[in-house]
Amino acid sequence: MKRILMRRLLLSVPLLFVVSVVVFVLQSLIPGDAASQLAGLQATQEDVLRLRRQLDLDEPIWTQYWHWLNGVFHGSLGTSLTNREAVTTALGTRLPVTLSLVLGATVFATVLGVVLGVASSRAGSLAGRLVDLLSVGGLAIPSFWLGLLLISLLSVRLGLLPATGYVKFADSPDGWARSLLLPVSALALGGVTAIAKQTREAMLDVLRRPYIDNLRANGVPERRVVFKHALRGAAIPICTMSSILLVGALGGSVVIEQVFGLPGLGGLAVSATGSKDIPVIQGVAVYFTLLVVAANFLTDIAYALIDPRVRAS
Amino acid sequence: MTAPSGAEPAARALTGADPAGAPPGAEPVVAPSGRPGLARRLLRHPLAVGALLYLAAVVVLAIFAPVFAPYGPQEADLTRVLATPTADHWLGTDSLGRDIASRLMFGARPALTGVLVTVLVAAVIAIPIGLSAALSGGADRIVSPLVDLLMSIPAIVVLLMVLATFDQELLAAMAALGVLTAPGLVRVVRAAALTVAGEPYVAAARVYGFGRFAIALRHVLPRITGPILVNLSLVAATALLTETGLNFLGLGVHLPEASWGGMVADASAAMNQQNWMLIPTGAVVAGTVIALVLLGDGVRDATAEGWARPATPARSRPTRDAAAGRARDRRPDDAVPAENPPILLRVDGLTVTVPGPGGRPAQVIEDVSFDLRAGETLGIVGESGCGKTMTGRAVLGLLPDGAHITGGSIRIDGVDATTMGGRERAGLRGSTIAFVSQEPMAALDPLFTVGGHIAEAVRVHTGAGRAPARRRAVELLGQVRISDPERVAKMYPHQLSGGMAQRVAIALALAGGPRLLIADEPTTALDVTVQAEILRLLRTLQRETGMAILLISHDWGAVGELCERTLVMYAGQVVESGPTATIVAAPQHPYSEGLLAANPQLGTPGMPLHVMPGGVPAPGEWPSGCHFAARCPYVTDDCIAHPIAVAGTDDHRSRCLRTRPTHMIEAKP
Amino acid sequence: MTDPLLSIDDLTVRYPRRRGGPVTALDGVSLTAGHGRTVGLVGESGSGKSTLGKAILGLVPVDGGSITFDGRDITRAGRRERRELSRQIQVVFQDPYGSLNPVKPIGRTLSEPLRVQRAIGTRDVRARVLEALERVGLPATAADRYPAEFSGGQRQRIAIARALVMRPRLIVCDEPVSALDLSLQAQILNLFNELKADLGVAYLFISHDLGVVRYLADDVVVLYHGCVVESGATRSVYDHPRADYTKRLIAAIPRAAQTIPNEKVPSCSSES
Question: Domain named ABC transporter: which ranges (chain C) (predicted)?
């Protein structure tokens, strides 16, 4: 068990390295740079050169990367090229928004999906076909489109919930929840159906195993068979799907933040890509990667808690 | 995907080109199956056909958009902005008065090319790498960690970078998406290929000199096209959603070029004035994704059908005389001599039916009757498909889905269990009737400790608290002769040997203090020396606890060791019953005789074994007369004419006309 | 006497493990098999009997010792040599469901080994396939059908036919009847004996079932934890077992309707 977690931790180091190098190399290929963007259209060649020197952009790419890496070891992700704000500060104010959205959607999808999946696994083949149908629909409907539809119905037409904007939890927990309800639902829908389908299939698979039969044959009541044995047996694929959803929700959050006007990491990434603000993009990449690493780590721990064979290996 | 259909003509050319060349003596058992090609098979799936038609329409409209579109993609009519559907603009117009239908056709072009690029890139990378990882350990040591690593890269960040680098060149981003989805696909290919590569036929191919490459191409790839296609269809769906997402953000195609995502963005901008535009734009994206997924599913199913067993038309089976035969077999209820222990289980005329091929009901057990007294040991012997296990399950009240009792009764302590409610029936399990199954490892939940398992059963049956149940569990482990029960109680099933696991399973069955233990092939999966130990343990426990045992086995040896009396079952019927020693020494039914003689233990080396020709007929294909007639060396016309009743003494009876009815049981109404 | 057909000398096979040292599956195993004879290889699960079969077939790497077939060292034969050897040594596996490729018609499965050899023409290939099918008692029409259309016993016949198309001199049979019911098992065992009498083929017959081996084998080799504990003519090993393990094995055979003495139930010590 410890070995698996250690391996996961050790693997995250090259992962972060690979991601940051990829971002740097890709960035170096981008025609033009932040200096020419900042200097504006009227700027002379000299202005751009001077700005470029100020921003250390005239150095070779590997030197720039080394500076950045050096900063990371000292707890700094550099400063934004566009507004000279520390990247950690800029990301820090936006991280809670993205985290609330992504974690909210994952938890929402998992809880609702497991409930629906367990119910449908007990309900026979018609319910199964319904879950199959819904899961195709859940996959097919683009989350941003669903978001727009929700805004159009619940906010614009009925005025039940705010259409856009974010309220900090510290300011008003109630407002925070109301501001997140629609975006989380839009982001989670596909996940709900995916989890429900996965839960149903895993439950049916476990319920077919001989040990379930054996428990029934020796008098263990059905309720215990389903909730204690079958659900626990199905928990590993559910966890796997849940962690896949979380990683997918990171990507989806970029679009959803745009739809609902949420000041999260995704919007920052889009605008920084437009202005070629390398340190900010790099920072977003590092944060996203860390979130993925954390999700994988938690999944591994969950596996071990569920299955003694994982603990032993 | 093409392998099964491609292989057929070749095989025909090989073996069917010259039908006259077939050996004249070889009578065809079944006519060779004329098998339609993949395309024809796909057409039998209505959903897949619908999906295919939809996708074909989208592709045609996209390619010939300049021809079919009523308006140009940029043709603006500022006098008619945000119109709802009209005869001119049958999907309405957008905020610049451009025709939505036309723009959807032009917008399909970047969407489809993008999807194609992603799928191709992912497939070209993932399939060879996944296959080589599955077939070569060396490659796997590199590929697997690399896949782990690459799957953790947040795709969206890389896509944003690629779009910035290549100046919003959508195809570059879609190619990058293909690269980023490849690791996931590698996993799928590798896992599927590993399963296939472990099968004996792959080993056989290696024996006759195939290299890894040939095996991958000829034996592994055709088998795994199903999962690959399904996953490629999912990759395509994801690619389309990503493409529309990027265009929605305005990062894809350059405005004012039409794109589906861009049109959703237009709709969102106009949402305060009109929200009709959301409908066609969203529907076309969702519809295409659904079509891709359904097509993937359909192709997978059609591929599998190419080599799966074709549905055999169920032969009609005359059931005319079945009822008559059954009535004659009823036994007197009052034949209980005083000195015998009470009857614990009385099965009378039990018939179980399952839905057969084509939905036609087929009997799997027919007219099974036997008694089991308290403390008695009874064996059920027969080959697979004879209904032994089904009989055990009927007594437990745990018939598989679809199977149900259509005749007869099961009396447990004199009460008919077939009329009990589900809850009452469940209450008997574990406390009155317990069960031990064939695969001891599979019979234990891998996620629970041995002690936890048994303690759960103890608590269910006795209502004991946690600590007393735990103590009782350890006692039970001692009772099944496990030498260090305290330690074993803390172990998990995967830490046990097969013999140990079977002892644990027996301890679990004993938890409720059952009076009848049904053991279904309890030793079949075990090593020979362990088999003997488990049989001895069962016999000792039977003596200690006085419980009755119903042993279901294909093995005369096991039954001989444990059981006083034996039932021989053939094709759903009890064909002989009597004291085990008597049946073994002087079988009355030709099937018992054949089964005993087929045992190589009793054969003489160098002499052919006694062989019953053919095999057990499948349920639904039983003849109306003697079920064994087709294989019987003594068959007469009478055997085939009508159902055979059971005859013989109370002690030893058989379902054969050759059995002398010493006292006529069938005389009873 | 001529040289034996197959001779194995001091064979050692180890499997690498992810953690810890390798597991020794075979530890200095020696045996010989004569032309046209049946050698039974008996042992419990984990005794290494299947590994021995795989080593002969070149499916597992050998760590020590030698395998000599017809006077020629095949211990580490390369792929080309293996391809040629497959005309001499063939295999039948236990699982009648996994041993045939479900996506290929029977005719194609049977002709594949011949086509790999490229030694005979298409017309002859077809003749050989039909001949092999007839040998195992299946109609020529079976060639056009898929494995799913056959029962377990029929599939095992097909697997035997696949071994026969090469006209081998040795067939390694790895538990070929264990998955079959008693009456089908008897049919297949008789088939093995007929083929041996008619074609002079030798078998290495791997089985956990002592009854089957006693009936079929001329000689028997008993494996225990990767070592040969006893070998000799079947009759004498069964009637006068010398090794303790062999005695235990033979004592454990349940005999129909013959109760064994009621001894004390032995304890099963816990394993981890």
Answer: 6-250
Residue C151: closest C-alpha in chain B: B615
CA distance to partner chain C, nearest, from residue B307 (Å): 5
pLDDT tens, A68-94?
888 888 888 888 877 888 888 989 999
Residue A32 binned pLDDT confidence (cut-offs 50, 70, 90): low
Identify the pLDDT of residue B377.
Answer: 95
Closest approach of C83 to chain B, Cα-based (Å): 4
Per domain, the residue ranges of chain B are 64-305, 433-513
Smallest CA-to-CA distance from C219 within C29, C54, C26, C35 is with C35
Which chains are within 8 Å of B by 3+ CB pairs?
A, C
- Residue boundaries of the structural domains of chain C: 1-88+170-254, 97-167
The dotted CATH code for B64-305 is: 1.10.3720.10
Statement: residue A206 has pLDDT above 80: yes
ipTM: 0.86
Taking the domain C1-88+170-254, which CATH number applies?
3.40.50.300
Report chain B residues whose CB lies below 8 A from the CB of C258.
560
User: Which residues of chain B neighbour A136 with C-beta distances below 8 Å?
Assistant: 290, 293-294
pLDDT band at B177 (very low <50, low <70, confident <90, very high): very high
Query: Could you tell me how many CB contacts below 8 A there are between chain A and chain B?
Result: 216
Cα–Cα separations (whole angstroms), residue B542 to B513, B514, C23:
12, 11, 40
Q: Do B199 and C99 touch (CB under 8 A)?
A: yes
Tell me: pLDDT of B328 over 80. Answer: no
Question: Which of B151-160, B296-305, C199-208 is most confident?
Answer: C199-208
Q: Please, what are the domains in chain A?
A: 2-73 (no CATH), 98-263 (1.10.3720.10)
Please name the residues in contact with A40: beta carbons below 8 A apart, sequence gap of 6 or more: none
What DSSP assignment string belongs to B286-352?
A: HHHHHHHHHHHHHHHHHHHHTTSPPPPPPPP---TTHHHHHHTT---TT---TTSPPEEEEEEEEEE
pLDDT tens per residue, range C134-145 = 989 899 999 988
| B633 CB burial (10 A radius; 0-12, 13-18, 19+) | exposed
Neighboring chain A residues of B439 at a CB cutoff of 8 Å = 210
Substitution target from B29, B38, B202, B207 for chain C, most C beta carbons within 10 A: B207
CB contact under 8 A, A251 and B154: yes
Distance CA B327, CA C154 (A): 38
| Mean pLDDT score across all residues of chain A | 85
User: Contact C272/B611, CB-based, under 8 Å?
Assistant: no
